[in-house]
């Protein structure tokens, strides 16, 4: 007689479907995930083996170390959003499979994760819909405010509050726009800086920067190459009120001055050829309540990049590429079996001319990080897709340190216009021209990047 597994794929699928039908969001299959993580720091006791091992999930057809390609993608079709599946099946995209991460502290910045555990249960929404500390009604105090989310709004609120999960981050970035025929049409270099005046867990003063306690975020993006766009920069200043649009300032070198731009026009490419809008940042590039109707539409296992994605062998952290007509379209990337992803849909509320009707976003239940997004056009057809990867910047003896712990951050993003076939590749590199280096929690980041004077200095390249 064949041995019947109590917790096989059929059981977990039924569990996720039954919970969804009852409107229940209780992460974990064998036990509540948040309780297991708080008690042990690991996910093992929350999920059966078939959700912790790609080999168990596929009954040995795909193993750790294998590469997913057109030859075997059917075995994991239900673990991929439709766009990556089509990329693999028809466009030569490949994904290396690595072991599932089970330790919570390897899934985010150490201090952010510590604050999440320490402050669990303290957050609430106030009468205006802003996330506040429950004890005094002041802005949030640090970490993920909703590590045991009860609905889609809480998932998006946490993501919007802290994009990179550091008090401050600077990302040196290269971006390439690849045409459907496989040619790289545009190559850009630039920097992305973000600073949180509230919910600070590393930088002093904590948890708030008193003179800026009414602000949620300062964020600057600028470009250093190619020559015709060098010096172009934008500064977003976010109010802590989750319903207000940021103030948006820009420096365009040909005008030689800082101008204020309309802030609700967030669905235009940052530069020619890029399949990226300000609205797309971290899948939560707009204030929380400018979108609405946050609905959980699914749960289940997923394949995403959460580890082994730092290009430690390259001095500037640059990655290899493959696939597409000229082997230039997709990043070399590693993915792991995520035991449980939570899928949330949201609709734009305060954008009457938005080219999108909704977005669908995948969150990792282990740490609530965004691991995929698809937007839909006004007809409801798939429009654009975003997938990327995170990693500890640690590989054997090689490490990039963030204080006392290895640096954790995103490593690369693939943004695809499904309707045109254009693909934009972004990667975080060690350094770009001008001495701008990736890193976290630099106390000089505000004066260097986040004032109007800083925009003018950046424009003088």
Characterise the protein shown here.
This is DUF1329 domain-containing protein. By secondary structure, the chain is of the alpha+beta class. It has a single domain, classed as Clam (outer membrane lipoprotein receptor (LolB), chain A), CATH 2.50.20.10. The chain contains eight helices and 26 strands. The longest helix is centred in the N-terminal third of the chain and has 13 residues. It is globular, with a radius of gyration of 21 Å. The protein starts with 8 loop residues before the first helix and ends with a helix. The mean pLDDT is 93.
Keywords for this entry:
461 residues; outer membrane lipoprotein receptor (LolB), chain A; 16-stranded mixed β-sheet; 8 helices
**What is the tally of beta strands?**
26
Going by CATH, the homologous superfamily would be: Lipoprotein localisation LolA/LolB/LppX
Rough shape? globular
Q: What is the CATH topology descriptor?
A: outer membrane lipoprotein receptor (LolB), chain A
Which secondary-structure class do the elements indicate?
alpha+beta
The unreliable regions are none
What is the average per-residue confidence, as pLDDT, rounded to a whole number?
Answer: 93
CATH class: Mainly Beta
Fold topology:
Blueprint: H1 9-21, H2 33-40, H3 54-57, E1 67-68, H4 82-91, E2 95-97, H5 110-118, E3 123-125, E4 131-133, H6 152-161, E5 168-178, E6 184-195, E7 215-225, E8 233-239, E9 247-252, E10 257-261, E11 291-304, E12 321-322, E13 330-331, E14 334-348, E15 356-364, E16 370-377, E17 382-392, E18 394-395, E19 398-399, E20 401-402, E21 405-406, E22 408-417, E23 423-429, E24 431-432, E25 436-437, E26 439-440, H7 445-449, H8 452-459
Parallel strand pairs: 2-14
Antiparallel strand pairs: 1-2, 3-4, 5-6, 5-23, 5-26, 6-7, 7-8, 8-9, 9-10, 11-14, 12-13, 14-15, 15-16, 16-17, 17-22, 18-19, 20-21, 22-23, 24-25
């Amino acid at each position: 007689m064949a041995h019947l597994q109590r917790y096989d794929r059929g059981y977990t699928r039924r569990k996720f479907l039954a919970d969804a039908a009852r409107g229940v969001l209780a992460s974990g299959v064998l036990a509540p995930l948040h309780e297991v993580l708080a008690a042990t720091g690991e996910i093992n006791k929350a999920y059966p083996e078939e959700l912790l091992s790609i080999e168990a999930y596929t009954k040995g057809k795909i193993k750790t170390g294998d590469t997913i390609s057109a030859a075997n993608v059917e075995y994991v079709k239900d673990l991929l959003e439709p766009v990556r599946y089509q990329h693999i099946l028809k466009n030569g995209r490949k994904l290396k499979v690595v072991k599932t991460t089970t330790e919570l502290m390897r899934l985010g910045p150490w201090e952010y994760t510590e604050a999440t555990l320490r402050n669990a249960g303290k957050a609430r929404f106030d009468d205006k819909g802003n996330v506040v500390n429950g004890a005094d009604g002041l802005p949030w105090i640090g970490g993920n405010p909703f590590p045991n989310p009860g609905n889609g709004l809480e998932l998006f609120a946490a993501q919007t509050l802290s994009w990179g999960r550091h008090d401050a981050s600077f990302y040196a970035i290269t971006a390439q726009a690849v045409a459907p025929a496989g040619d790289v049409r545009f190559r850009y270099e630039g920097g992305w800086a973000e600073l949180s005046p509230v919910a600070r867990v590393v930088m002093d003063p904590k948890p708030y920067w008193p003179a800026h306690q009414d602000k949620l975020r300062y964020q600057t993006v600028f470009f250093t190459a190619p020559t015709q766009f060098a010096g172009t920069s934008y500064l977003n200043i976010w109010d802590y009120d989750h319903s207000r649009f940021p103030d948006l300032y820009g420096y365009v070198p040909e005008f030689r001055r800082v101008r204020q731009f309309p802030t609700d026009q967030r669905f235009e490419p940052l530069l020619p050829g890029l399949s990226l809008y300000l609205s797309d940042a971290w899948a939560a590039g707009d204030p929380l309540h400018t979108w609405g109707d946050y609905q959980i539409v699914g749960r289940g296992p997923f394949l995403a990049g959460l580890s082994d994605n730092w290009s430690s062998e390259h001095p500037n952290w640059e990655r290899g590429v493959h696939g597409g007509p000229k082997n230039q379209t997709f990043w070399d990337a590693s993915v792991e079996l995520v035991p449980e992803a939570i899928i949330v849909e949201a609709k734009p509320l305060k954008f009457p001319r938005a080219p999108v009707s909704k977005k669908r976003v995948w969150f990792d239940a282990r740490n609530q990080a965004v691991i995929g997004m698809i937007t839909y056009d006004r007809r409801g057809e798939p429009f654009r897709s975003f997938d990327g990867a995170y990693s500890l910047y640690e590989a054997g003896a090689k490490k990039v340190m963030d204080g006392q712990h290895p640096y954790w951050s995103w490593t690369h993003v693939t943004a695809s216009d499904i309707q045109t076939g254009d693909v934009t590749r972004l990667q975080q590199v060690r350094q770009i021209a001008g001495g701008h280096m990736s890193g976290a929690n630099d106390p000089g980041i505000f004066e260097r990047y986040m004032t109007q004077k800083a925009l003018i200095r950046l424009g003088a390249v």
